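Re-running the complex after MR caught last week's input typo. The corrected sequence lines follow. Everything else is unchanged.
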Amino acid sequence: MFINTFLKRGKIPLKQGIFMQILSDKGLIIKTKNYNIGLDTASSDCDCCFLSHAHTDHLLKTDKKVLCSEETRILSKIRGREVRVMQAPKNIKLFNSGHILGSKSLLIEEDGEKILFTADFCPRTRGFMEGFKTVKCDSLIIESTFGRPYFIFPDFEEEMKKAKDFAKDNIKKDYLTVLMGYPLGKIQQIQHYFKDYEKTIHPDLKVYNDVHDSFGVNLGIFNGLEESDLLFTPLMKTNNEYFNNIKRMRGVKFAVFSGWNIIPSYKDRFSADEGFTISDHADFKELLNTVHESKAENVYVHHGNCKEFVNILKAEGINAEKV
Ligand SMILES: [Zn+2]
Ligand SMILES: [Zn+2]
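Corrected-run output:
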């Protein structure tokens, strides 16, 4: 009830002198004694902004100073959003969110109170991506992209083994295997797993692969299309001009990689032959674990299946609200 009253005004007191402001576009700002920090958002109310990672729905167009990793600064610039980076103040920590290269979560500590903000995060270690580790906090602001009990992901290694079997079978039959995924993050995971194969990439991936390479992620050696068994591309429909040209030269099998592949018809949207459920987000169980492990007194849920996840938390007696 207490939280609800404040929610209507768009301003929630987290602790003495610390507030969370909810903007009309659902953006969140943490207002501490010293700073107003936009969380993946930049409004005139912010002194500075936290940029969690370089996926397009999080990028910022701002001349304010930004807290982000060096990887995110570079990737953001490539995507047309150059930011001025500031040093994190002593009471603010950025730490690995396990989502994509350079992705961070934010921990603010003021007068002994800890506020943790997760943007997109993933606790599973997958290939070169180390998983997110929960930090104990008083207030937890958590994403809920996959916050429904239906969303339980298979084991990464087991799912990738299935993908490997699919590719091996295609190689035996002399098909080219096209592996498609989100061009920043997902597709580098998949390339890393298949790094010892004869392979090539769609030209759009090169710039993101190069950033991974410059941060020490080994994606292996790339060949021309003719010598390759595998072709990595962004997610797209399989009947476009790019693929039709390739199909005229040789037989092709298509696979999509996404957490959304957990929905049975997902691969049909792209007319792909196979789909593999590989996600860079926490699944339902992992979201729940994160809430439990954080021991947070108050949990604020943003992004995705907020309502359903909040109701599940409330049924457990946890003080939770959608923001
Ligand atoms: Zn993301
Ligand atoms: Zn996102």
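None of the earlier attempt is carried over here. The helical segments are 2-9, 70-78, 156-172, 186-193, 206-214, 241-249, 284-294, 306-315. The chain has a mean pLDDT of 95.
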